[in-house]
Design a protein that fits this description.
mainly beta, about 120 residues, four-stranded antiparallel sheet, about 0% helix, seven-stranded mixed sheet
């Protein structure tokens, strides 16, 4: 099982930016499709973005398209989420996860390993 550690969260004003990182253990990172999800208090876990193994194809939920960018560095076993033009509605704990899917995966059910999350708080 892959161990995942997120970092980069914090408090930012609306309109600001943050870059989240998710470092993975193991030597098979490139074999995983990676995803970012978020969960606000009292709400269900929500898909944010995914980057597909081997092809690097990316996919985003509509609310973050044009503002967030997911990328990966297989040499560093790390996936990133660049978040720009943040709004208070983006406030949540952000979690990364791994999947063996060969296509973009938006359902949490197809992800196997999860990190503990990093908190993002956007003030108005």
């Amino acid at each position: 099982q892959v161990q995942l550690v997120e970092s980069g969260g914090g408090l930012v004003q609306a309109g600001g930016s943050l870059r989240l990182s998710c470092a993975a253990s193991g030597r098979t990172f490139r074999d995983y499709t990676m995803g970012w999800f978020r969960q606000a208090p009292g709400k269900e876990r929500e898909f944010v973005a995914t980057i597909v193994r081997s092809t690097g194809v990316t996919y985003y939920t509509d609310s973050v398209k044009g503002r967030f960018t997911i990328s990966r560095d297989n040499a560093k076993n790390t996936v990133y989420l660049q978040m720009n033009n943040l709004t208070p509605e983006d406030t949540a704990a952000y979690l990364c996860a791994t999947s063996r899917s060969y296509s973009f995966a938006t359902s949490a059910a197809v992800y196997d390993s999860w990190g503990q999350g990093t908190q993002v708080t956007v003030s108005s």
